[in-house]
Specification:
The complex is a heterodimer of chains A (about 110) and B (about 110).
Chain A: E1 4-7, E2 10-13, E3 19-25, E4 31-38, E5 42-51, E6 54-57, E7 65-66, E8 76-78, E9 87-94, E10 104-105, E11 109-113
Parallel strand pairs in A: 2-11
Antiparallel strand pairs in A: 1-3, 3-8, 4-5, 4-9, 5-6, 7-8, 9-10, 9-11
Chain B: E1 4-7, E2 10-14, E3 19-25, E4 32-37, E5 43-49, E6 55-58, E7 61-66, E8 71-76, E9 85-93, E10 97-100, E11 104-109
Parallel strand pairs in B: 2-11
Antiparallel strand pairs in B: 1-3, 3-8, 4-5, 4-9, 6-7, 7-8, 9-10, 9-11
Classes of the chains: A mainly beta (about 110), B mainly beta (about 110).
């Protein structure tokens, strides 16, 4: 079954404590992306990756890092989380070409930073 | 910079009625997506609209795209409770990026 798997689904942490949210896809997709969803703002892109070792900033990259060492995995790293990073996070993947291809979304990770 | 705006942001309607959600965007694009999100769930792809005049229909939902007006509509016909959800449009910016609207929270009452 085609899947984008995020872990953990829920996370409560404290300011400054480094954390990683993992994302894995089993569809051999080249393109992967992280979004955050906040009420009234829709989804905003944090980082994206067009292939292994190729990453770029989205609209709201501050305070986040990513890496793409393998095609299937695209972890999101918060080196020093702050309360304004409390949000719902989604990982997504799709084949390289955007035309005609839909993005598949993970189930989401709800993060609270105290 | 591409801006995508949906309206209304909240919509409460009765079963059996028709209504339309609008998605306006600020710069040229010929690809637009509609997604559905149920509470606490992920996003589910509904429609991909690839050209001017494109129309797609699935059950009680119909989506259209007018690239000249930079407008897409999602029309709901004879609404049923199961269609209650938040609906997002997303517009392609360049070859790689999707920009999302704020979402329209639709509640359908018996």
């Amino acid at each position: 079954e085609a899947q984008v798997t995020q872990n953990p689904r829920y996370l409560i942490t404290v300011t400054g404590k480094k954390l990683t949210v993992t994302c894995s896809q089993n569809m051999n997709h080249e393109y992967m992306s992280w979004y955050r969803q906040d009420p009234g703002l829709g989804l905003r892109q944090i980082y994206y990756s067009m292939n292994v070792e190729v990453t770029d900033k989205g609209d709201v990259p501050e305070g986040y890092k990513v890496s793409r060492k393998e095609k299937r995995n695209f972890p999101l790293i918060l080196e020093s989380p702050s309360p304004n990073q409390t949000s719902l996070y989604f990982c997504a993947s799709r084949p390289q070409a955007l035309a005609k291809n839909i993005q598949y979304f993970g189930a989401g990770t709800r993060l609270s930073v105290l | 910079e591409l801006k995508v705006e949906q309206n209304p942001l909240f919509l409460s309607m009765q079963e059996g009625k028709n209504y339309t959600i609008y998605c306006n965007y600020s710069t040229t694009s010929d690809r637009l997506y509609w997604y559905r999100q149920d509470p606490g769930k992920s996003l589910e792809s509904l429609f991909v609209l690839l050209s001017n005049g494109a129309v797609k229909q699935e059950g009680r939902l119909m989506a259209s795209l007018d690239t000249k007006a930079r407008l897409s509509t999602l029309h709901i016909t004879a609404a049923v409770h199961d269609l209650s959800a938040t609906y997002f449009c997303a517009v392609c910016q360049g070859a790689q990026k999707l920009v999302f609207g704020q979402g329209t929270r639709l509640t359908i009452n018996p």
